[in-house]
Amino acid sequence: MGGLNMDRGHKDLNEIVALIAKLPKTQKFREDPDFKALCLYLKSELQEDYMPVAINNMSKRISSYLMTHSYSSPKELVNLQKELLKLNTKQNSLRHLPFLFNIY
Predict the structure, then answer these.
(1) What Å distances lie between residue 17 and 43, 51, 53, 80, 83, CA to CA?
(2) Distance between CA 61 and CA 84 in Å, rounded?
(3) Which of 18, 20, 70, 102 is 20 to 30 A from 44 (CA-CA)?
(4) 38-49 pLDDT tens trace
C-alpha cells in the first residue's frame, strides 16, 4: 500500500508539485495578499511528513479561497483542487482496504 503513505517520490505527489508550480505569477496574483498567502501555505504543506494529511489540509485551504474569490480564481487553482480531491478520495478508499481483506 505504498500510495497510502505517499513518499516524496510518489507520482501523484509529483503531479501536485507540478500543478502548484503552474499557479499564475502575473502581477494581479502577486499583488493579491490572499493568493500569496495561499501559495506560501501550499508550499509549506509539501514539507509535511505525512502527505495524506497535507493533501487534505491543502484541499480545505483552497476550498476556502475559492469560496471567497470565486470570480477571480485562476483556472490553475481549480485544476489543483480537482487533483487534490481525487487524491483525497483515493486515500480514503485505500484506508479501508485492510479491513475489507481482513489484513491486520
Answers:
(1) 8, 12, 16, 9, 11
(2) 11
(3) 70
(4) 999 999 999 988
- Tell me the backbone φ, ψ of residue 90, rounded to 5 degrees: -65, -45
**DSSP assignment letter at 1:** -
Q: What is the Cα–Cα distance from 51 to 68, expressed in whole angstroms?
A: 26
The pLDDT tens digits of the residues spanning 70-87 come to 888 899 999 999 999 988
- Grid coordinates belonging to 50: 505525512
Contact 63, 6 (CB under 8 A): no
Q: What is the pTM of this model?
A: 0.76
DSSP 49: S
Domains and CATH numbers, the chain: 6-100 (1.20.1440.50)
Burial class (CB in 10 A: 0-12, 13-18, 19+), 4: middle
